[in-house]
Amino acid sequence: MKGKIYLIAGPSGVGKGTVIKKILELDENVAISISATTREKRKGEKDKVNYFFKTKEDFEQLVKEDGFLEYAQYAGNYYGTPKKPLFNKLEQGYDVILEIDVQGCMQVMKKMPEVESVFILPPSLEELEKRLRGRQTESEEVIKERLALAKSELDQVKHFKYSVVNNTVDEAAAKIVEIIRSGR
User: Fold this and answer.
1) Cα of 157 vs its chain's centroid, Å
2) What is the tally of structural domains in the chain?
3) Which structural domain, as residue segments, surrounds residue 175?
């Protein structure tokens, strides 16, 4: 493969999506792997742009066909990384970011120890809660679930090669671009 895989994980609400968007602006040789999910589309999301939105049945069929590099169930929905589009981008020479949960990262690291991994940390748990509430996309119950999960995910930072605190999007993105460029 010509490109490299970069796993980027962190707790829900830490700003992974925003940081990755900035990374893509800063380096044209970086692409993002689009995940598949069974969750409902959020306002403004598009199929094949934000996610490959799948029915539970379609997702489970792809699992049977070994069509995912990794997949997991999270907050009642499936999420996974389809192999075919990912490997196509790598062959085209792109370094590809996978924005996946910690469980998915562990699966990928086991299968492909050569991948690079970056864990994005919040400045504090209070700030993480503020960001989650600020999105106004989840119910109180889901926010509490995500915060509880975040606390256990933060313990997993030790399994990642790099960790970056997201104090500001520009700062975090610049640090990750530096990591990617040094890997070339």
Assistant:
1) 14
2) 1
3) 5-182
User: Each residue of 23-66: pLDDT tens digit?
Assistant: 999 999 999 999 999 999 989 999 999 899 999 999 999 999 99
In three-state secondary structure terms, 163 is strand
Distance CA 144, CA 22 (A): 28
Distance, CA of 147 to chain centre? 17
Cα–Cα distance between 100 and 115 in angstroms, integer?
13
CATH number at residue 111: 3.40.50.300
Q: The pTM is what?
A: 0.85
Q: How many CB atoms lie under 10 A from the CB of residue 42?
A: 11
Residues constituting the chain:
184
Q: Which helix (H) or strand (E) segment is 117 a member of?
A: strand 116-121
